[in-house]
């Protein structure tokens, strides 16, 4: 049987997608070979790659003046690629700091330019929150403004999109495709695939065309967005299998009502889990309501000494990967698109039973 997987990433994939990949694994569309064994330049593979892009464009309603790049190196390589590409003309940028991932991004950016860090984390009645934009000290001459929509470790998410006349650059690694998004508000969106898109090994970059040509001259061509755009993301051999599998996820999303339908279920899942945690004396979530992530739900137990037992019993109940990030401890349930409502219900049932037995 397949368990419910609450891993933050690499994360759950839709069973239907894995079944399709399994059926096609040895002999892709009667060609007598696996797609993994196919040249990335073959017409068959290029058609798969182009369909994945077209489906993603449909899902996210990506305007025509944006390029979609299928890259490697994870979101972490984008922490360097972004300043190297966008700081060419003006070496200043604003970085909004809300947690561990936005901090990693700004630390890398500091190697390449003059980075203005906006501390936007705060505490409201003992709960973590993101400050009002009116309190931020943004620069007049920044080349771009960077933030992370959803802090995967902290479980802290922006309630809306910041307003700026500068190109807005956002790490959507753990929230892309979870809710409708107005792509036209952004200069650049990036995301590692291994949470809400597909398997690890692929990184998406969606970039407005006018930002393509301001790279620093010393940038490696593999990191240069304009080179990747000109070459269909094939400056070198791309992560072909991850790209193909992500394409199957996009097809699955389209067949299941697209991002709007996912968002509706995601809200239901989040409401169920946060609602249960809030009503319980045994569990607690550290985030202020307005900034609670709908994808990553951290929680603690009233008796921290029971954490190991909680995880062991959860696993025996086919509820996997509920340990919090190693840097913060506690628990975390990641409830991405591929985790069904029934999975969250099973988790809540288990949590309730565990609490009653251990109160
Ligand atoms: C919000 C966010 N940004 C960046 C990363 C780093 O991604 P990668 O491991 O793909 O480099 C992660 C990974 O969990 C993440 O959650």
From TrEMBL:
Q: Which residues carry this modification: N6-(pyridoxal phosphate)lysine?
A: 195
Family matches, as CDD domains: PSAT_like
Domain of life (superkingdom): Bacteria
- Name the Pfam families on file: Aminotran_5
Q: What is its main location?
A: cytoplasm
| Entry keyword annotation includes Transferase | yes
Keyword vocabulary terms for this entry: Amino-acid biosynthesis, Aminotransferase, Cytoplasm, Pyridoxal phosphate, Pyridoxine biosynthesis, Serine biosynthesis, Transferase
The pathway it acts in is: Cofactor biosynthesis; pyridoxine 5'-phosphate biosynthesis; pyridoxine 5'-phosphate from D-erythrose 4-phosphate: step 3/5; Amino-acid biosynthesis; L-serine biosynthesis; L-serine from 3-phospho-D-glycerate: step 2/3
The UniProt function text for this chain reads: Catalyzes the reversible conversion of 3-phosphohydroxypyruvate to phosphoserine and of 3-hydroxy-2-oxo-4-phosphonooxybutanoate to phosphohydroxythreonine.
Q: What is the protein's quaternary organization?
A: Homodimer.
Q: What is this protein called?
A: Phosphoserine aminotransferase
Give the species: Acinetobacter kookii
Encoding gene (name): serC
């Amino acid at each position: 049987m397949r368990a419910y997987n609450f891993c933050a990433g690499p994360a759950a994939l839709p069973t239907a997608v894995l079944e399709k990949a399994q059926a096609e694994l040895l002999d892709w569309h009667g060609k007598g070979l696996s797609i993994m064994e196919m040249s990335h330049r073959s017409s068959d593979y290029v058609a798969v790659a182009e369909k994945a892009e077209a489906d993603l464009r449909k899902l996210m309603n990506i305007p025509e003046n944006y390029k979609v790049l299928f890259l490697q190196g994870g979101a972490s390589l984008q922490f360097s690629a972004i300043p190297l590409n966008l700081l060419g003309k003006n070496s200043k940028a604003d970085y909004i700091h809300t947690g561990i991932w936005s901090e990693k991004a700004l630390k890398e950016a500091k190697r390449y330019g003059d980075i203005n860090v906006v501390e936007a984390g705060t505490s409201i009645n003992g709960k973590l929150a993101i400050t009002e934009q009116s309190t931020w000290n943004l620069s007049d001459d920044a080349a771009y403004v960077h933030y992370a929509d959803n802090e995967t470790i902290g479980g802290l998410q922006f309630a809306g999109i910041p307003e700026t006349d500068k190109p807005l650059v956002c790490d959507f690694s753990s929230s892309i495709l979870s809710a409708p998004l107005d792509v036209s508000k952004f200069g650049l969106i990036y995301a590692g695939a291994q949470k809400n898109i597909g398997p690890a090994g692929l990184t998406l970059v969606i970039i407005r065309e006018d930002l393509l040509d301001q790279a620093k001259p010393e940038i490696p061509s593999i990191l240069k967005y304009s080179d990747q755009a000109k070459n269909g993301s094939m400056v070198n051999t791309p992560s072909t299998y991850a790209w193909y599998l992500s394409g199957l996820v996009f097809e699955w999303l389209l067949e299941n009502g697209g991002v709007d339908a996912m968002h509706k279920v995601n809200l239901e899942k989040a409401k169920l889990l946060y609602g249960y945690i809030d009503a319980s004396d045994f569990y607690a979530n550290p985030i202020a309501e307005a900034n609670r992530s709908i994808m990553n739900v951290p929680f603690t137990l009233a008796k921290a000494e029971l954490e190991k037992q909680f995880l062991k019993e959860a696993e025996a109940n086919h509820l996997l990967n509920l340990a919090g990030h190693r840097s913060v401890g506690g628990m975390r349930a990641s409830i991405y698109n591929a985790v069904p409502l029934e999975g969250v219900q099973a988790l809540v049932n288990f949590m309730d039973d565990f609490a009653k037995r251990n109160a």
